[in-house]
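Hi all, a correction to my earlier message: I attached the wrong file for Antibiotic biosynthesis monooxygenase. Here's the right sequence:
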Amino acid sequence: MTQKPISGLEPPYYTAVFTSLRPDAPEGYAETAAELRERVGSVPGFLGYESARTPGGLGITVAYFRDLEALDAWRLDATHMAAKEHGRAHWYEAYSCHIGKVERSYGFERE
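and the right structure:
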């Protein structure tokens, strides 16, 4: 499935950029990821996400939030926190997370 870039978000808003290195299909990862996608969608102020992974296991997910309160609600979600702990112990070789405030945003889409 091809995912379109997120567009049309009115700044300011916040991003959480999660970059990770992990094997292609670790046990239990897909199920947990599906549950987390559903949970983050119910966080007030969550605006969407984009995600990509290379065949070598490098992945980048960018999640968009209206404000820091929404981002903190996700960061402190108990299921999300448990998944992060499990990921460090079992799935990821390495990861980084960068939080940023978007002050300008634009896009293009061919008709």
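Sorry for the mix-up. Residues 13-102 form a domain with the Alpha-Beta Plaits fold (CATH 3.30.70.100).
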